[in-house]
Amino acid sequence: MTSIITPYEDGPLIVRGDFELRTADGEPIDPSRGTVALCRCGKSAIKPFCDGTHKTIQFKAPGDDSRRR
Ligand code: FES
Fold it and tell me: Where are the transmembrane segments (predicted)?
């Protein structure tokens, strides 16, 4: 199982590839598609998925590895 998770600048985490999405209790969450956007701004109404609210609240986050700065 290989997945690629990409943090988008000022946006969600995009997950591509083979993955399973589960709750903290281990219950499966149906992603409904092969590529999903996971909210990292904390304001989505459809968590864990992104609903675009990050744009409204002008969420800021790097799209790279901030440990390297
Ligand atoms: S990252 Fe898009 S709504 Fe939170």
Answer: none
pLDDT in 10s for each residue of the chain, 69 residues: 699 999 999 999 999 999 999 999 999 999 999 999 999 999 999 999 999 999 999 999 999 998 987
- Please indicate, yes or no, if residue 24 is contained in any of the structural domains: yes
Closest residue to atom 2 of ligand 1, CA basis: 50
In terms of residue numbers, what domain contains 7? 1-55
Report whether 26 contacts 9 (CB < 8 A): no
CA distance 5 to 38: 10
Question: Residue 54: what are its φ and ψ, rounded to 5°?
Answer: -55, -30
Q: Ligand 1: distance of its center to the CA of 65 in Å?
A: 19
Ligand 1 center to 12 CA (angstroms): 5
Q: Closest ligand 1 atom, CA of 44?
A: 3
| Domains: count for the chain | 1
